[in-house]
UniProtKB/TrEMBL annotation:
PANTHER family: AMINOTRANSFERASE-RELATED, GLUCOSAMINE--FRUCTOSE-6-PHOSPHATE AMINOTRANSFERASE, ISOMERIZING. This is Glutamine--fructose-6-phosphate transaminase. Keywords: Repeat. GO terms for molecular function: carbohydrate derivative binding. It comes from Murinocardiopsis flavida. Coiled coil: none annotated. InterPro entries: GlmS/AgaS_SIS, GlmS/FrlB_SIS, SIS_dom, SIS_dom_sf. One of its GO terms (biological process) is carbohydrate derivative metabolic process.
């Protein structure tokens, strides 16, 4: 049986410190980012795994608030096909916890060779990625030992929030600077609500995790964590995609975890989805969404009020804790899931 505490839980609890240090280090780089903004029109994110989920947040944030088109790259276009694409006017943003993943480093170099300006977001200060990038945004999460990424994920969110500000997003940096205190205040709270969700999930083999807009990245990351550490068949889906067919998999044995900010343009749709899920005879569990989503679900884990653009920082924390607790509840070691390493090399 695994220990009653884990490195993963310790690293979840280290997130306020990691966020403070990251924001202190990166907010002064806004001028460097702004200089790149003058030379570019759109953003191309290069990432895999957890970093790719973080990039989904950056894509929504930049498109909604900085007025720039943002897309996720297909690294195989560079590494397998060797295609040459005119990337003049593109800001290529690579995200990698270590800064050493060969596929991501190679794709960033490819983007630079194709004419893009480059940014590297990594926790590896002296890594190949930082040597390639025009601007390196080095997060300050410290060493992360548990294989499932937690504090490096939220540090990557912070780096992308700084990136969006540098690219001209009309958002309040002071709100971003409040985030570490909000996350710190929520740690240790709502444990009973989290435990209730864990007990329900302990008896199922699969779940659907859904969110939209800014919360979509959280849904994808929550599903990935449940797969990595709990070996659950967890699907991360936009609620719009869920309604186009996959709703059929949601039933009494396959609950839905619905994730939403406490306010914002996607909340009403998430509430409607919860009502649809329950009408189909399936359980629905909420993370966030305020009282509106809580009233529409069987169980809910509340989160503090943050502006929608910052809500993913608070939404992911309960999902991380649920994952860690569920893994131990099932007799698994959340720190060292089977078949996984900290750095995954792909080609």
């Amino acid at each position: 049986m695994p220990a009653t505490t884990s490195v993963m839980r310790s690293e979840i609890d280290e997130q306020p410190q990691a966020l403070r240090a990251t924001l202190d280090a990166l907010l002064p780089k806004s001028a460097e980012i702004a200089a790149l903004a003058q030379q570019t029109r759109q953003v191309l994110f290069i990432a895999r795994g957890t970093s790719d989920n973080a990039a989904v947040y950056g894509s929504y944030l930049i498109q909604a608030h900085a007025g720039r088109l943002a897309n996720l790259a297909s690294p195989s276009i560079a590494t397998a096909y060797g295609a040459r694409i005119d990337l003049s006017g593109v800001l290529a943003v690579a995200i990698s916890q270590s800064g050493k993943t060969e596929e991501i480093v190679e794709t960033l170099q490819w983007a630079a060779d194709c004419g893009a300006k480059t940014v590297g977001i990594t926790n590896g200060a002296d890594s190949p990625m930082t040597r390639i990038a025009d601007v390196a945004l080095v997060t300050q999460a410290g060493t992360e030992l548990a294989v499932p990424a937690t504090k490096t994920f939220t540090a990557q969110l912070a780096a992308q929030a700084v990136l969006a500000l540098g690219l001209g997003a009309g958002l309040d940096a002071a709100e971003l600077e409040r985030v570490p205190d909000v996350v710190e205040d929520m740690l240790g709270r709502n444990e009973e609500a989290i435990d209730a969700v864990v007990e329900r999930l302990a008896g199922v083999h699969g779940t659907v995790v859904s969110g939209r807009g800014m919360a979509f990245s959280t849904a994808l990351e929550a599903a990935l964590k449940l797969k990595e550490a709990c070996y659950l068949h967890a699907m991360g889906l936009s609620y719009a995609d869920l309604l186009h067919g996959p709703m059929a998999v949601v039933d009494a044995d396959t609950p839905a975890i619905l994730i939403a900010a406490n306010s914002g343009p996607t909340l009403a749709g998430t509430v409607a989805l919860a009502e649809r899920v329950r009408a189909n005879g399936a359980p629905a569990y909420a993370i966030g969404g305020g009282s509106a989503l809580a009233d529409a679900c069987d169980l809910s884990v509340p989160v503090p009020d943050l502006p929608e653009w910052l809500a993913p920082f608070s939404l992911i924390v309960p999902a991380q804790i649920i994952t860690e607790k569920l893994a131990r509840r099932l007799g698994y070691d959340p720190d060292s899931p089977r078949g996984l390493n900290k750095v995954t090399q792909t080609s």
